[in-house]
């Protein structure tokens, strides 16, 4: 199991015992700080993830570590870094930098194959989550300039672009010849794939954050209805309306809703982890402690990361018989 | 199956995003709302930082209320 932490250290851990196998401190590569945020790419022998140093002079990389030893096979200097999830397509990976540039790298060597910049000047270091999507040989990239770009995945050539009215705040998530994403003007979009395609939108009543999670015939989003607390909202796929909303004491604090055994897992600022079914019923909950951030899932064990740096591995009771 | 955990200071990130949006010049109503959002999110981030510092001074609480079986606990240091 691999953990990228906010203090700039990558940890490889034996997930059966919780014992560290190796660590790598990214601060040795320069910069005043280094953090790890986005989802990595895991290959047979590599773990690839991006670091970030959110300042105009920041130093960030995309790293490829040998899984067994922690040796750096390659690293790619990515300006101030990459916070959004990395995306793989065969022997290539795609990363969006804090400079709002989409980069295509050779997965085995880290060699840049092409780059595409939205042209937006990112003085605020704000591109935190707008990961691209690869669909049918095209890369969809939602820029901080409020434009979704479709590029040829092999060459990086721009094929079409679509103004969506506000900067893209979430990863683009593909589903059924469309992509779902949220924008800063408090909307979720369902954009069909084409220059003249339909851009269905729904007002959310708050700023979306984290990737839309598809579950059943719904999409789940964490939404900041007010500045302090995020709620979990379920929306039908055609974006006709919000189906249900779930709140938590302290607000939901996990980076996204995670799928596990047909349910959606979310963690709260008061340390509670809750499993919701697609129809919004609470299946079970546990209080683990701390402010919950990332949740890793295996078949029967959850790995719950908290803000202060403690990671809990525990096996929840999921059935009513187990719990009573 | 490999699992990956990440630690997000995402409220801070949203605060940064909202602040930059305000600076970029949006309609007045939206701008005001965005500034409110940014202020609130910054406050939330400050609180979580405070929590983090406070928590760092104490041993990690065991997942006592969790009704499942604890397998192990690991400290990343931050």
Key terms for this structure?
heterodimer, A: mainly beta, Methylamine Dehydrogenase, Chain H, Thrombin, subunit H, Lipocalin, 3 domains, five-stranded antiparallel β-sheet, four-stranded antiparallel β-sheet, globular, B: 78 residues, alpha+beta, 2 strands, 56% helix, 13% strand, elongated
Descriptive account of the structure:
The complex is a heterodimer of chains A (324) and B (78). Chain A is mainly beta and 324 residues long. In chain A, 1% of the residues lie in helices and 49% in strands. In chain A, strands 4, 5, 6, 7 and 8 form a five-stranded antiparallel sheet that branches. Chain B is α+β, with helices and mostly antiparallel strands and 78 residues long. The model of chain B is unreliable at 1-65 (pLDDT under 50). The interface between A and B is large, with 77 and 54 residues.
Could you give a quick summary of the protein structure above?
The complex is a heterodimer of chains A (324) and B (78). By secondary structure, chain A is an all-beta fold.
Terminal Cα span of chain A: 31 Å
Q: What portion of residues of chain B belong to β-strands?
A: 5-15%
Output the number of helix runs of chain A.
Answer: 1
**What is the CATH superfamily label of the largest domain in chain A?**
YVTN repeat-like/Quinoprotein amine dehydrogenase
Q: Mind sketching the topology for me?
A:
The complex is a heterodimer of chains A (324) and B (78).
Chain A: E1 2-4, E2 9-13, E3 20-25, E4 35-36, E5 41-42, E6 46-52, E7 61-66, E8 72-77, E9 87-89, E10 92-96, E11 101-106, E12 112-117, E13 133-135, E14 138-142, E15 147-152, E16 158-163, E17 173-174, E18 178-183, E19 187-192, E20 199-203, E21 207-215, E22 218-224, E23 230-236, E24 242-246, E25 258-260, E26 263-267, E27 272-276, E28 282-287, E29 292-297, E30 302-306, E31 310-315, H1 320-323
Antiparallel strand pairs in A: 1-2, 2-3, 4-6, 5-6, 6-7, 7-8, 9-10, 10-11, 11-12, 13-14, 14-15, 15-16, 17-18, 18-19, 19-20, 21-22, 22-23, 23-24, 25-26, 26-27, 27-28, 29-30, 30-31
Chain B: E1 4-6, H1 10-24, H2 28-56, E2 69-75
Helix pairs in contact in B: 1-2
